[in-house]
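Batch manifest, entry 17 of 40.
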Amino acid sequence: MTLTPSSEADTLEALTPISSEEAADIETTAELDLAIPEEVPSADDSSSRVSARDGDGVGFTLDEFAALLSKYDYNFKPGDVVNGTVFALESKGAMIDIGAKTAAFMPLQEVSINRVEHLSDVLEPGEVREFFILSEENEDGQLTLSVRRIEYQRAWERVRQLQKEDATIYSEVFATNRGGALVRVEGLRGFIPGSHISTRKAKEELVADFLPLKFLEVDEERNRLVLSHRRALVERKMNRLEVGEVVLGTVRGIKPYGAFIDIGGVSGLLHISEISHEHIETPHTVLNVNDQMKVMIIDLDAERGRISLSTKALEPEPGDMLSDPQKVFDKAEEMAARYKQMLLEQAEDNEPMGVSLE
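Output type: structure tokens
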């Protein structure tokens, strides 16, 4: 590169050491250059605004600039969740400002996951919240919004979490049908099959009752939410029961495979093989509906909501349930204590032998 006389002089000057006095002068000059002027126009000072003539040399007009900005307008599409402001409540819905060219509309049926009679019950002008875009712009350039869809998605998320935690919830029965009872959970409609309703009330009398419930099925794709009242009661009862405990129960139903015994509001199964050491053709030969009897708990299955019972384990002699059931009930606690001792000994025999590392 060839240096011109002036550039050579500048280079030599830049390479020449400076004195401390000159350095101080340079610092002072820099501070003066960086100082903020006292008279600084404010952002809304008209004298500081750029006029249309000032943009003549920038390569495009203000109209072209506005057209360019319009290309970067919000691109709203169905499925998006956007913030909006409620600015008008009408008889059929609400007008929402989401920054689009035209105010968006939310129909009354999309205001909430729950039934709403009046918009003013759930919305008020000036309220800011999230909205779900349901559809493309109509011929008037207007979008359709929904709050119900957001609440619906979040309700399923919440229900899935409750199921994962195996939580017990309480819900009010709002209707019944031939198959069972209907409830609402987080705004979603849930169904309790008749076989999972554990109460002496008629189904029709359950309306407006709050029931403890456990989840049986949570399937958003099929829109199925199935719950169990029986399982919730069994779990609650199980927390106060233990294997080997003798309880008083009432026969509520008899099937070829066994009898269902009510023990304090929950049902346990006395299988035909657990009635006696002697062979039994059918439970009807030994038991009758409404019989009161002592039974011993031999298994608690909280996950399946089942309680297994036995009178065979309480027989002082094999066959006593057939020949003298009262003798079985009189000695029930004594025989249960022996049963517990037997379980304890079996557990000790099954413990692995300790290995010494010395």
